[in-house]
Amino acid sequence: MAGKPKLYYFDGRGKMESVRWLLTAAGVEFEEEFLKTREQYEKLLQDGALLFQQVPMVEIDGMKMVQTRAILSYIAGKHNLYGKDLKERALIDMYVGGTDDLMGFIMRFPFLSAEDKEKECAHIIQKATSRYFPAYEKVLKDRGQAFLVGNRLSWADVHLLEAILMVEEKSSDVLSEFPRLQAFKANISSIPAIKKFLEPGSQRKPVPDDKYVETVRKVLWMY
Amino acid sequence: MSEKPKLHYFNGRGRMESIRWLLAPAGVEFEEEFLESREWYEMLLQDGALLFQQVPMVEIDGMKMVQTRAILSYIAGKYNLYGKDLKERAWIDMYVEGVRDLMDLIRVHHKLSPQEQQKNLALIGEKAATRYFPVYEKILKDHKDDFLVGNQLTWADVQLIEAILTVEEKVPTILSEFLLLQAFKARVSSIATIKKFLQPGSQRKPPTDEKAVAFTNRIFNRR
């Protein structure tokens, strides 16, 4: 008799976006409470709802889960997106680690000065095209399958699609040297739940803007 | 007929130390190959041994695993240090990730200038005493168990004791307000395999110093 998971975060991507993606891929409906004021955040703190005083926090199955990685691992495990055994899980964890590092650069991006943004944009594209995308292109090539692990959809595929789309927002032709990733992108995007998520009106959040940055700074006193 | 795991890293703590810590209580013997030069690193790259061109890399069960978290999760799963079900795993993941954030502050310490180091030391002390250790003290208090999750040793306990000892090297009095953590530290340190790891002559590495930082900068061509 479990209710829907409830996500506590800002009204924007940040660290919570990967959770929205994974719940969507798992076919799980979820609710969201957006942090807009310092007072809301302090109330969560006073209620003891944030184990390490941080968001993301997700209420799920009677737990108030924090730490993005822990949340994602739990959802993946619960909804059969974590492979069939320990070794497949190891591969998924490795691949997710890579896309996590890549998306980490992009997540910090909105908080940089205008000057640093230019340099960082070039850095992101360089890392994507010389370190990360070649690795995934090779995995798809060597396996000859539509998915990264175990010939079925896993957390690793969802995470990679999210990363690809994020990097493309910075440079639209970034996949030009990676034919298998192009096919992968088309393939995973066409999965009904994900296709719907990519359409307007879904709970997917837009590219972070100055308003988002301002809200985060205001709520977390991060100046 | 599996061989011993083989760790590829520098002869120092860095990101590999948590892996050494986890293999030790599991009673798993392991070998180490230390990166001694830029050429050695390039050889690993050319052999395609490093999925994202990075170390740590651990050869284990026929895989060349990278991504610290992936490696730790695999070891925990394989050697029964990951709880008995999905929910226990969720708590272990949350506790481990919290400790990891604290350890990251320490890991970068010696890369900072002497001025920045002073500020960082204060930050480490503050975060340990107000954000992280109170959480674990409370868990031990509420559960009245010897361990953090499920009343048996798990990855969460190993990660916590590593963090306690590492913070104490920088802030010796850090546990003065945390009586249950003091008892925890004494108790877990006396487990046979961990006790052995804490003695001279084990594969545990000494604290990182400036020499080690200069060395790794050279290997990775960093300024």
Automatic annotation (TrEMBL), chain A:
EC number: 2.5.1.18
UniProt keyword terms in alphabetical order: Transferase
Gene3D superfamilies with a match to the protein in the record: 1.20.1050.10, Glutaredoxin
Every GST N-terminal domain range: 3-83
InterPro entries: Glutathione-S-Trfase_C-like, Glutathione-S-Trfase_C_sf, Glutathione_S-Trfase, Glutathione_S-Trfase_N, GST_alpha, GST_C, GST_superfamily, Thioredoxin-like_sf
Domain GST C-terminal: 85-209
GO molecular-function terms, A-Z: glutathione transferase activity
EC category: transferase
GO term, biological process aspect, one: glutathione metabolic process
Domain of life from the UniProt record: Eukaryota
Assigned protein family: Belongs to the GST superfamily. Alpha family.
Name this polypeptide is given: glutathione transferase
Organism: Apteryx mantelli (North Island brown kiwi)
From TrEMBL, chain B:
EC number: 2.5.1.18
InterPro entries, A to Z: Glutathione-S-Trfase_C-like, Glutathione-S-Trfase_C_sf, Glutathione_S-Trfase, Glutathione_S-Trfase_N, GST_alpha, GST_C, GST_superfamily, Thioredoxin-like_sf
Domain GST C-terminal, first and last residues per copy: 85-208
Superkingdom to which the source organism belongs: Eukaryota
Ranges in a coiled coil: none
Record keywords: Transferase
Entry-linked PROSITE patterns: GST_CTER (PS50405), GST_NTER (PS50404)
Entry-linked Pfam families: GST_C_3 (PF14497), GST_N (PF02798)
SUPFAM superfamilies named in the record: GST C-terminal domain-like, Thioredoxin-like
Stretches assigned to the GST N-terminal domain: 3-83
Family statement: Belongs to the GST superfamily. Alpha family.
UniProt-recorded name of the protein: glutathione transferase
Source organism of this protein record: Apteryx mantelli (North Island brown kiwi)
